[in-house]
Specification:
It comes from Cerasibacillus quisquiliarum. Helix content is 18%, strand content 35%. With 283 residues, the chain is an alpha+beta fold.
Length: 283
């Protein structure tokens, strides 16, 4: 499954804001099993293979607790390479008293939990694309109970969990937005994604290359929800990785054509969706 590597555009990095960096390091390193790739002051870059940084923690100055009822992060989603890894982390969570929810989405099996600051995380495994059911341009997804009895049959004999697998990926991100019409235009006409599932008038799921979704957006915090303050715990930005400079340049042109803001910032190209969610455009 090559939904998270070039030439497909994919999410390469998610940056989240936390209140207490040391507390967050303990959670992400000691509980989830990430390694620290680099630490610079109030910023920590996390990795699973010692090379890729796909999750960054930052403690802003004057940071404030996570604000409710705003746009921004609903959850970011960590994609495990196999069902046995998902089974093993279920056992690990139970042993460490980590509270979590769960769901079978037909295309995937998922767990949901929060970090110490209330940033929500999904950790999941994909079913093989041959098992996904497409109806025209939309892939069938649902939220039904996860079959733990069947899942746990896939746990490895020692059922241990100490580290994230090396080939773990940032699977997708799901965002709270203030409305869907302009949001759809931004992600489809601007960023070049396809709508692959519509959840009534409340949510859209979008992707590149016929994945079930690289980005989800919803209005579950209310139509017209405000953006959080700059210092609030939550999403700082996420990165889209394009195949090459030409694809990125074309995307920047498309964004400007629909009136979206695109600017260069510290050597990086960045844009903002209609709800203020920041996106870095990388190659």
């Amino acid at each position: 499954m090559k939904f998270h590597e070039k030439p497909t555009t994919f999410i390469g990095n998610v940056k989240i804001k936390v209140q207490n960096l040391e507390r967050s390091i303990e959670f992400y390193r000691d509980i989830l099993g990430f390694d620290i790739l680099e630490r610079t002051g109030s910023i920590v870059k996390l990795t699973t293979d010692g090379k890729r940084n796909f999750l960054t923690l930052e403690q802003p100055e004057d940071v404030t607790p996570k604000e409710r009822g705003t746009t921004g992060l609903y959850h970011f989603a960590i994609l495990l390479p196999s069902r046995s890894h998902l089974a093993n982390i279920v056992i690990h969570f139970v042993k460490n008293n980590i509270q979590f929810g769960s769901a079978d989405h037909l295309v995937s099996e998922a767990l949901y939990f929060k970090d110490p600051d209330g940033n929500e995380i999904e950790i999941y495994r994909d079913r093989h694309p041959s098992e996904w059911n497409w109806r025209g341009e939309e892939v069938e997804m649902a939220t039904i109970p996860l079959d733990f009895e069947d899942l746990l049959k896939n746990a490895t004999p020692d059922k241990s969990w100490s580290k994230m697998p090396e080939n773990t990926l940032m699977g997708h991100i799901h965002l709270h937005v203030s409305e869907l019409e302009n949001t759809e235009e931004f992600y489809v006409k601007g960023l070049g994604m396809d709508v692959v599932n519509r959840f009534g008038s409340q949510a859209l799921f979008l992707s590149y290359g016929k994945y079930h979704h690289h980005v989800g957006v919803n209005t579950w915090n209310g139509v017209g929800a405000p953006a959080p303050s700059e210092t609030s715990v939550g999403l700082k930005s996420y990165t889209l990785v394009f195949d090459n400079e030409d694809v990125r340049a074309e995307t920047i042109t498309n964004l400007k054509n629909i009136g979206a803001e695109v600017k260069e910032e510290n050597g990086n190209w960045v844009t903002y969706d209609p709800s203020g969610n920041k996106i870095e455009l990388a190659v």
